[in-house]
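Quick one - inputs below.
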Amino acid sequence: MPKLSDLLVPAPLRKTPKPGETGVPNQPAPQDLKDNPPERPSDYQRLGQQALEAPMESVAWIDQRLATSGFLTGMLFRKVPKGTNWFYTLGSAALFAFIVQAVTGVFLAMFYTPSTTQAYTSIAHINNDVFLGQLVHGMHKWGASVMVILVFLHMGRTFFFGAYKYPRELNWVIGVVILILTMTMAFTGYLLPFDQRSYWASIVGININGTGPIVGPYLSDFLRAGPELGATTLSRFYAIHMLLVPGALIALIGAHMYLVVKLGTTAPPWTKVGKPRVAEPTANLDAGVSSGNGYRPNGSGPTIAGVQLETTDGDGTAQA
Amino acid sequence: MPDDADNINVPYRAPQQVRDEPPPPGYFEGESMTRRKVFTIAAQGLGGLAGAAIILPAVGFAVAPIFHRGKERWEAIGSTSNFVEDTYRQVTFTEVPGIGDAGKTLAYVRKSSKELGEEPGQYVAVSNRCAHLGCPVRFVEAAGNFICPCHGGVYDFQGKRIGGPPVRPLDRFQTRVNKGQVEVGPRYSVTSQLKPVRARDPGEFTGGIWEYLYPPRPSTFPAP
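Output:
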């Protein structure tokens, strides 16, 4: 009986087992074809067979050219440590919140006008007139808070589980940049409806930026594109909100996930560390190896120790 | 011959291979740089130039507004007889043109008062922008104070801070009289002694060392 994960992989994407590998039954010897000729399938049977195989064949055709199955199976069926629990889904949840924001944002942009005189009316139009407009706007508006909360919870999980430690420090750094960019998205998106609340909130937010010494005044001038909040401020916030930061976010989320897959996840801190399941190297060395070869105590298993012994032999020959 | 067991801590290294390759074409004795290195540096330099040709204009375009100062605007807000010494009159005028109501701002205007030690014959226009974080303050007639609804900043009749989180007095607008009409012009900030300085954003201190820690922005107008 193959493993469950093998059953989930479509047949063309499965790794071909090596001969003699466990799980491959020994084939009976082929019988004489003359004694037992196989029945020829009818044309209809062959057509039906081909139709059944067509989807898999096309998947295999694409996979042969893209060579993605190795990557996909490696990513989807990678090993996770014992004790992995629901807290580990916070990162995926944050990613899902980002996807919701991206999709709803694209559709909101079809109706939104980033001009000081029309922004408010275009949002009112979305809410009042467009079919399901209030729903999509609401998903984007409340989804923003959801994403910020999830990113923070994900950061808390990483911190309290100690998952930021070696070798995952760089992923923590990338995550901090993603957090900052998420806050930038929240800040720039807040101005876009251009009602009283967003106008005054943006004024306060820009002025908080301005209180940083020396660079602060220039930073707030940069954000406003001038000494006062004006028409360019809105279009600037709009461009940052829907072009600049999303691009950077997508790139950084990609790097973040690449490192997660490459480095693997950590076990929860309360997981007991079991004994490593390798034989003691001494047992093998005592049995078969004569003296004169170097015994390397840093060898971790019999196989590795054996390789090391061979190299020692080579070393000795080279020296002699 | 020493036993191998003595060398157990010496890592194994493959013996170095010495390859006898012919010199690359164009090689001469005493050359300081290979042809490959010259072309590597030249290609990287050209790539850097091409990148800079794209990025520098884009960055300049984005930061240019920091160094741009708009046109000076003066707007008439009413006849001189409209304004008295002992109380403020509220006027609304356009500070940022072209963006409708969002570009309007509000000022409290009065005649200068001899009792307060001000130069006579002038008009004082106090901005309603709170010096804490920029919320709109209101002049409360009964108290004779400006009060900010956001975080409880309180200013006296002249706009000096007397309570709450604001860091300096309320901003002012330049005023002048033209054909019997009072006109308001560019914004400026004041120190705690009401000395005019270039306009600062809310939340930024004025006077003393703060003039250097919060440098004046090129986009603002010089103080009167």
